């Protein structure tokens, strides 16, 4: 049965095709996942595209702690509404929609009420490798369909194609949120470390917000792309002269790197009262000289995705500014190859799975 011919009102869960990780060391393989029947507040989405975030790899390989296998990862989901529950008010069948890293939360705690569902005091329900309110494990976007409560579904504005929209649901919001929080805009010098999935979105968004943007990449290989995407300057961090030339320059540094860095060296690039905000999540703990932040009253901060309302705000901002992700669309059976290329920093700039190939 295809995900679309599921009869409305039938309460039998529907099985859809997916790709799953079955252990930390095996390649992802074809899998079938059961989706719950559409409840009164639920939206059933036919997934068209799913982005490959580095977090999918961290999770599939149990790099952040043991994952629960099998797990279908993917939290950059774009598709169309196939069915809505009787109490759904925001969406109709056929609407273009997206789902990011969360699919539920308590909805009542102070953080949920403030629009910070990612910090729900009871813990948000992750799109994958989590447990839903029905007690079942959650499975993400490398699959044909998903059922999500409408409060965790965003509208994808007309004008953004679904393939380039998918990565906005994680890479987009994860970079938009700290850029907003730390005031990226005209007159601000913003550096972005790492020109990967998150990094290239940070460049596009910071540029659209009016900031002066510098890319700090390992090499100059992607310089032409970086400048085309909106960077004003581009430096190789493998060149020690870079750290001399840029000393004390930046108001804000957004670190998108998935590996450990010499944080003292990067903090020396901040102006007085500047902030380095980390979104990259390497598995190991870090070491830091306190002098690197104390001298200059600098901030060393982190940022975790963004709430649902802010995700919608980001999507609307992207539509207004003609921003999508730069994507390489791949067939589902190329996902393991794509993982290796992401790990080798050989991604320009987000792999997106064409779900029709599942
Ligand atoms: P990605 O596409 O692999 O990009 C990471 C980039 O970092 C690479 O393209 C590379 O850029 C640079 N890099 C990689 N290894 C490096 C090394 N050893 N030294 C210096 N630079 C290195 O990954 P992504 O999907 O953007 O995700 C980045 C990180 O953010 C991951 O850890 C992911 O889990 C995390 N993340 C966090 C959140 C959050 O809410 N905070 C949300 C999503 C993802 P260059 O080639 O330009 O140097
Ligand atoms: Zn992600």
From TrEMBL:
The keyword Zinc applies. GO terms for molecular function: oxidoreductase activity. It holds the Pfam family ADH_N. The keyword Ion transport does not apply. Keywords: Metal-binding, Oxidoreductase, Zinc. It catalyses: a primary alcohol + NADP(+) = an aldehyde + NADPH + H(+). Its EC number is 1.1.1.2. Residues 23-353 form the Enoyl reductase (ER) domain. Its cofactor is Zn(2+). It is an enzyme of class 1 (oxidoreductase). PANTHER family: ALDEHYDE REDUCTASE. Belongs to the zinc-containing alcohol dehydrogenase family. This is alcohol dehydrogenase (NADP(+)). It comes from Kineococcus halophytocola.
